[in-house]
Amino acid sequence: MNQEKRKNWFLTFLLLPSLFLFIIFTAYPTIRIFLTSLFLDTGIGGEAKFVGIKNYIKMFHDPVFYTALKNTLFLVIVVAPISLLLALFFAAVLTTGKFKERNFYRTVLFFPSILSLVSVGILWSFIFNPTMGILTAIFGPNAPAVLGSKKTVMWAIAIVMIWQAAGYYMVMYIASIDNISKDVYEAADLDGANGWQKFWNITLPQLKDILSATIIYVINGTLTISFSIVNVMTDGGPNRASEVLTTYMYKQAMNANFGYGMAIAVFVFTCSIIMSVISNKLIYREESTDE
Amino acid sequence: MNKKWKSILFSLLVRIILIFSSALVILPLLWNIITSFKSNTEIMENPWTLPKVLHFENYVNAVVKANMGAYAGNSILITLFSLLILVFISVCSSYALARFHFKLRKPIKNFFMSGIFIQPVYIMIPLFLLMTKLQMNDNRGWISVVYAVTMLPFSIFLLYGFFKSIPTDYEDAAMIDGCGYMRTMFSIVTPLARPGMIFGFFAFWNEYPLALVLLNTDSKKTLPIGLQNLMEVQKYATDWGALFAGLVILLVPTLVIYSLCQKQLTQGMQVGGIKG
Q1: A123 and B181 in contact by Cβ < 8 A?
Q2: Superfamily of A51-285 according to CATH
Q3: In this structure, are B12 and B105 located in the same domain?
Q4: Taking CB atoms and an 8 Å cutoff, what residues of chain B touch A145?
Q5: Looking at this predicted complex, what is its ipTM?
Q6: Cβ separation of B47 and A105 shorter than 8 Å?
Q7: Tens digit of each residue's pLDDT (9 = 90 or more) over B206-255
Q8: Distance between CA A123 and CA A156 in Å, rounded?
Q9: Residue span of the structural domain in which B204 resides
Q10: Could you report the per-residue pLDDT of B132-182, keeping only the tens digit for each?
């Protein structure tokens, strides 16, 4: 066998299994989201009926969809900026190198982001539990039922999601700040710049790319993580007050409204794709130049 | 002098914030661990008192009565099997994409990369329908394959970067020494695949949405699903101790891997850092 032929066989062997699996278990299901959303599909046994955009029309007339949309937007607006600002603050103060125990803070603050979302959800449901949790110890017997009240439930979920996510972005920022050349800071020191000036004039401009990328990640993360957190902590309750788009999609599909569930999925997914395309442009911009 | 005081005061303030934030992370977890050793009546009392005796029977109850032992076994099995598949398919494909020049290289790479933002939550329902139709549902082997594929784009992304960052001299030398393509690939790859595997471990061990729809039989379920069911049951049955013990069982492997592999994990995040 000649060299060229051997190489081609080897390449086929390397790429074929992963391509095959990727098409079946990722590409095809993704296409199916869009296709199913055009059908009245009530289950595995029955024949699906093509209904065009009827599921979408139904969606835009569904008050629960708007509740879920409102709650999802609330989470994006609250969780995304607070997580990133906290992460940026921690990264900035931990990279100045003043604190001997900075590795301890980094290790601890990152930890929640690798915990199972289910255990995070269960743990915090107990912390918010008005009869046995930590809140009872603080507020006494009249502790508020945070997860049982329409007014507070979304804030409680937002707090949990910030607790979970901030450390993750902190580590990403620390990695980027560590990559900035130390000479620039030394030069600034000679010019007599203070810590704040250095952060504002050197660190922040250098972080421009990673900042834009993390904005996309955190929004995408909020869309998907909210599914697990809400499903475990409140199941969308009380009375739909904490329903988010992904949990509503899941409920509709599990109620054998596959078509309608997938219309909601298309909506969320399209929002996330639009943001991902933007972020892809940002991440791969450098790399594509050497291709 | 004034400036120095200001800087000391600022450092102090920042340190207080850092200690406070760390406490916000540590205390809930500590509370979880302490509570897992308490009796049911103690749990309902002040959360910060220590248990009078360590109620290890909570763990026995969790493992035996609440089935946590079986769930943990499934989690270990599925995590390991998924990692095995993931390493094999991602090493093979990223090596091909990074080290060889061929016509379809760029389209194939872009095809894989387009999957990086397709989160399991979005495709969980179509996957459920597909797996049901193919009768691959409720099967620990097939869910492992699905898990591996969900991490494939990110692993390729990481490994591709690593392959590109090391010079080809090493492989050329290996080839001249008479190693075949296969041996050359695995000789340089094995140490590099580790960060991707650590990401994979956390993703698989903690995975929730897909396990929720793809596993129905109780004896096949994983720890996260088992714990969620236990929480639903405990709302009425109240064996809180066992539930907290179950949470610790889920937590411990994460803690161990994290303390052992923190460096590789952050190294991986430096290269990419995309996770749902």
Answers
A1: no
A2: MetI-like (1.10.3720.10)
A3: no
A4: none
A5: 0.88
A6: no
A7: 999 999 999 999 889 999 999 998 888 876 666 788 888 999 999 999 99
A8: 13
A9: 59-271
A10: 989 898 999 999 999 999 999 988 988 888 787 777 776 677 667 666 777
